[in-house]
């Protein structure tokens, strides 16, 4: 049973500390094991990758079977419902169109006579995409990670995903990867896949950045290799928060809360409402819908441990709760969601109105579903086009322009005790130097 917390009395709740305990960033024992795996892959390359694949995935691969072949990709299309293939294509197009609007341009600016500054905006060369495997397949994650990279102009996209016991990759994942423009696909998962992409092996290319969700071992591996390559973020368990007033439909709200609860026992589903009636109706509806869910054991534990219905006095108070928790997904199921939006500062993806349900963002609308979790929406953004770009600063001074500021630069350098810096300016104006 989900708990109801009434904040109208002015008292705080331990729900905030309870949610903080979900963070995957403090698993010291997991981190120690991951660091060992990463070091081994860095040292021994393909040999270590194959050993860990046998150990963790129970699949005995050889080097010749590590990379997915064109034949396997073509075969995948025969195993996926043609209707799903068409949906994948439409989703890809929506994701492409959304991220196309995020493009930035290089620029140059003439600040004063003889001074030009600017910024060059260039795509990364090689990007690694990690796609989870195991009991569920997520072709949507393939699209969300690979399509923006393609829009950005990344030269090579390398995907890793764990194989099944039959040594194959889920066909829907292969179809999505092909439709998204992934260049190379390797049958490897877990921390060993992240390490292989970060450092490169005899078979798997070294990448500039690794993106995509994964379990705690993947998250800790990304944390470990950060600095050797870039990463998108360290994602934690999924979460949703719904803000509802008396106009909300409790059936819709309960369904949306459960849509995230079924992900993981650590997932968090929270309703913040100004209506006590809605709170009680949603509580009843959750029980009714939970009873018929295929993943009811997972969703039920998630709701019991990390779910809550919070009653507040006003929508302003609701926004305070939202901004404090900084949820991954936020739904505003209120009479005027656009007005309520003005008070929201911290959220990964925001869904406005009763018919803008969270699964739209997961699969089809276009905005990215790789989102900051565990309160990191306070300072992280959804995966976006700029994640696949790099910027270079441009500086150009003529001799006359440098002469006008040389004394300022020399003074600044000498104040920091960096005489060679000062001299690099001074020598350009000594007698006998070219003018």
Automatic annotation (TrEMBL):
Pathway annotation: Amino-acid biosynthesis; L-histidine biosynthesis; L-histidine from 5-phospho-alpha-D-ribose 1-diphosphate: step 9/9
Keyword presence, Calcium: no
Cofactor(s) this protein cannot do without: Zn(2+)
Major enzyme class: oxidoreductase
Record EC number: 1.1.1.23
Active site feature: 328 (proton acceptor), 329 (proton acceptor)
UniProt binding sites for Zn(2+): 260, 263, 362, 421
InterPro entries registered for this protein in UniProt: Ald_DH/histidinol_DH (IPR016161), Histidinol_DH_CS (IPR001692), Histidinol_DH_monofunct (IPR022695), Hstdl_DH (IPR012131)
Binding-site residues, NAD(+): 130, 192, 215
Coiled-coil ranges (or none): none
Keyword Protein biosynthesis among UniProt keywords: no
One Gene Ontology MF term: histidinol dehydrogenase activity
Domain of life from the UniProt record: Bacteria
Keywords in alphabetical order: Amino-acid biosynthesis, Histidine biosynthesis, Metal-binding, NAD, Oxidoreductase, Zinc
Reaction catalysed by this enzyme: L-histidinol + 2 NAD(+) + H2O = L-histidine + 2 NADH + 3 H(+)
A Pfam cross-reference name: Histidinol_dh
Function summary: Catalyzes the sequential NAD-dependent oxidations of L-histidinol to L-histidinaldehyde and then to L-histidine.
Family to which the UniProt record says this protein belongs: Belongs to the histidinol dehydrogenase family.
Protein name, entry field: Histidinol dehydrogenase
């Amino acid at each position: 049973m989900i708990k109801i917390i009434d904040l109208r009395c002015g008292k705080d709740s331990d729900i905030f500390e309870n949610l903080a305990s979900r963070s995957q960033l403090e698993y010291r024992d997991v981190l120690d094991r991951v660091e060992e795996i990463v070091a081994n892959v860095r040292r021994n390359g393909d040999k270590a990758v194959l050993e860990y694949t046998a150990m963790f995935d129970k699949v005995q691969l050889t080097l010749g079977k590590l990379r997915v072949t064109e034949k396997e990709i073509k075969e995948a299309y025969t195993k996926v419902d043609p209707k799903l293939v068409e949906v994948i294509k439409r989703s890809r197009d929506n994701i492409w169109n959304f991220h196309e609007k995020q493009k930035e341009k290089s620029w140059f600016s003439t600040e004063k006579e003889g001074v030009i500054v600017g910024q060059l905006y260039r795509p990364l060369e090689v990007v690694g995409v990690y796609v989870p495997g195991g009991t569920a397949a997520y072709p949507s994650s393939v699209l969300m990670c690979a399509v923006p990279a393609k829009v950005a102009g990344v030269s090579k996209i390398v995907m890793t995903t764990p194989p099944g016991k039959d040594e194959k990759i889920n066909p829907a994942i292969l179809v999505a990867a092909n439709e998204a423009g992934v260049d190379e696909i390797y049958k490897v998962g877990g921390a060993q896949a992240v390490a292989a992409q970060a450092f490169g092996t005899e078979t798997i290319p070294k990448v500039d950045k690794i993106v995509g969700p994964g379990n705690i071992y993947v998250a800790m591996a990304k944390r470990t290799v950060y600095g050797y390559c870039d990463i998108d973020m360290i994602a934690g368990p999924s979460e949703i928060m719904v803000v509802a007033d008396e106009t909300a439909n409790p059936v819709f709200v309960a369904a949306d809360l459960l849509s995230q609860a079924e992900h993981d026992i650590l997932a968090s589903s929270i309703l913040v409402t100004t209506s006590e009636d809605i709170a009680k109706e949603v509580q009843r509806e959750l029980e009714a819908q939970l009873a018929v869910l295929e993943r009811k054991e997972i969703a039920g534990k998630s709701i019991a441990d990390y779910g809550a219905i919070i009653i507040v006095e006003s929508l302003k108070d609701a926004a305070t709760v939202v901004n404090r928790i900084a949820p991954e997904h936020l739904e505003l199921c209120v009479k005027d969601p656009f007005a309520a939006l003005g008070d929201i500062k911290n959220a990964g993806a925001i869904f406005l109105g009763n018919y803008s349900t969270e699964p739209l963002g997961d699969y089809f609308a276009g905005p990215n579903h790789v989102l900051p979790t565990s309160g990191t929406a306070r300072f992280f953004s959804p995966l976006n086009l700029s994640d696949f770009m790099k910027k270079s600063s441009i500086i150009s001074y003529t001799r006359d322009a440098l002469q006008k500021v040389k004394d300022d630069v020399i003074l600044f350098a000498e104040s920091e005790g960096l005489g060679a810096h000062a001299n690099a300016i001074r020598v350009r104006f000594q007698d006998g130097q070219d003018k």
